[in-house]
Design a protein that fits this description.
Layout lengths: L20 E2 L4 E2 L2 E2 L6 E2 L10 E3 L9 E5 L3 E2 L2 E4 L7 E8 L2 E4 L2 E2 L2 E2 L2 E2 L4 E9 L4 E11 L16
Parallel strand pairs: 6-15
Antiparallel strand pairs: 1-4, 2-3, 5-8, 7-13, 8-12, 9-10, 9-14, 11-12, 14-15
């Protein structure tokens, strides 16, 4: 063979593509080459959308109404990623963010404390990350102080 010919195949790769293994052959007039070794295309994608299961029931202010001392959860956080995303949960209190009790993308049952403000899920694929959370509207009773009571014990 005197010369070499090169060709480039460009494909728009999507995650839903059914066939991801490709081979090629070269043809000139009536002569066809042997089939090449297969090449597998592994599309990298995500995260693009985060989903919570069950979906938190938010109030008119887009917050989850809970009572101090009650428990919430479990909530599962998922995101379609390849390779799989690392899913973590954080909780925001009046002191800032800290790790929430979670396991394999699931926010475990949490005892609600007065200073809790938000639970946030993060889907991280290394070079791309996405965060989504839900705010809390924590309902609590103020403790009655002795100074607010009159002599017969009523408030």
């Amino acid at each position: 063979m005197d010369g070499e010919t090169r060709g480039t195949l460009r494909l728009y790769v999507t995650r839903d593509r059914k066939y991801n293994r490709y081979t090629c052959t070269a043809t000139e007039e009536d002569i066809e080459s042997d089939r090449s070794d297969p090449v597998q295309i592994n599309p990298l994608y995500g995260p693009e959308i985060i989903k919570f299961t069950p979906k938190p029931k938010l109030n008119i202010d887009d917050k989850l109404t809970v009572r101090e001392g009650d428990t919430i959860g479990p909530f599962v956080c998922t995101s379609d990623c390849n390779p799989l995303c690392n899913i973590t949960w954080r909780v925001k209190t009046s002191d800032g963010f800290s790790d929430a009790r979670s396991e394999m993308g699931t926010l475990l049952q949490q005892a609600v404390q007065r200073d809790m403000r938000l639970f946030r899920c993060k889907a991280d694929r290394g070079n791309k990350a996405l965060k989504q959370g839900f705010e809390l509207d924590v309902q609590y009773m103020e403790k009655a102080s002795w100074s607010s009571m009159n002599m017969n014990g009523s408030i």
